[in-house]
Amino acid sequence: MDVRIYHHPACGTSRNTLAMIRNAGIEPTIVEYAKNPPSRTELIGMISDAGLTVRQALREKDTPYAELGLGNPDLTDDQLLDAMLAHPILINRPFVVTPLGTRLSRPSELVLEILPETHKGAFTKEDGEKVLDAEGKRILRSPT
Predict the structure, then answer these.
(1) Can you state which reaction this protein catalyses (predicted)?
(2) What pTM was computed for the model?
(3) What dotted CATH number matches 4-132?
(4) What does each C-alpha distance from 55 to 52, 109, 118 come to in angstroms?
(5) pLDDT by 10s per residue, the chain, length 144
(6) Which of 2, 12, 42, 61 could bridge to 38 as Cys pair (CB 3.0-4.6 Å)?
């Protein structure tokens, strides 16, 4: 299966997402988007395919979001895209693209929606949260 992850190695959510993809027996194409950002067309396509608005795909935390005034509601999608392409760290992460769909995998287990059910056993996130049981089946959290 052809899977592409727009990855940021310093991000725990991105690392967990990558590990879940690998747990499904898939070695994805890894794009370190801060070093190799997507083209404008690719970014627009990922955002649209994931069912998001441009603003929803914009990352605020640990970015120049505030300094650039990107919270201004009068900014257009084109202006936000310009900022994201000029400062790729503003692209929320990780985006994952598979033949089954595109997701912004926040939280990381959203990636399971677009992967085949070929998981190789249990999976626990870096923070200790169990996501898959020993048979590779999703562990659903009860609402609190």
Answers:
(1) [glutaredoxin]-dithiol + arsenate + glutathione + H(+) = glutathionyl-S-S-[glutaredoxin] + arsenite + H2O
(2) 0.88
(3) 3.40.30.10
(4) 8, 22, 33
(5) 899 999 999 999 999 999 999 999 999 999 999 999 999 999 999 999 999 999 999 999 999 999 999 999 999 999 999 999 999 999 999 999 999 999 999 999 999 999 988 878 888 888 888 888 888 888 887 665
(6) 42
